Amino acid sequence: MTHPKKSILSDKRLFLLEQLNEKTRLDSFHCQIKEYNDYLFDESIRSQKDQMALTWLLRERSTGSIAAYMSLISDAIKLSATEKELHQLAYPFKTIPAMKIAKLAVSTAFQERYKGIGSLMVEMAIQIAQSCNEQHFACRFITVDADIEHNETVLKFYEKNNFIPNEEIKGKNRKTISMRRDILFMAKP
């Protein structure tokens, strides 16, 4: 008999978000996408030292195991006139400030036990962006390059979390789809 997955969005106290550091043990993490494991184990610390990406870990409080991680970077996106109108952006700027989720991965073991971990990570990224808006610098959008090469269902995941595709050049063979979520005018998931 299989047990239904627990939804963690109803009880966020199960987890703790912490920033990666050089002393962090990462051996409890494994996801189904080798490239994402390799990034966490081999590149994330260097990316932080070089100020290229800041990695956040979601830990289960009771075990200390890593349930998920995300790497965040600053970003700016170009929007068409139609896209600017959609977001009520009557500014002459060529680019709009954003924060990008450069990597987001959920541990296979936690995917099997819980549902909603990826959505919780998106919610936490939005909270970090809103904190930046209140204290440090402007950030209107959360952006992501949805990795359709490694995960065919990732577009549905981001759409469920209120991201929309950015206008792109037609006929281009893409491994990722550029998407955005307006954090000023957010719809509820």
Which secondary-structure class do the elements indicate?
Answer: alpha+beta
H and E string: EEHEEHEHEHEHEE
Q: Please report which band the strand proportion falls in: under 5%, 5-15%, 15-25%, 25-35%, 35-45% or over 45%.
A: 25-35%
Gap between N and C termini, in Å? 31 Å
Radius of gyration: 17 Å
H/I helix tally: 5
Shape: globular
CATH top level label? Alpha Beta
- Low-confidence spans: pLDDT under 50, at least 5 residues? none
CATH superfamily: Gcn5-related N-acetyltransferase (GNAT)
> Which architecture would the CATH scheme give at its second level?
3-Layer(aba) Sandwich
CATH fold-type name: Aminopeptidase
> Level of helix content?
25-40%
Number of domains: 1
| Main sheet strand line-up | 2-3-4-5-7-9-8
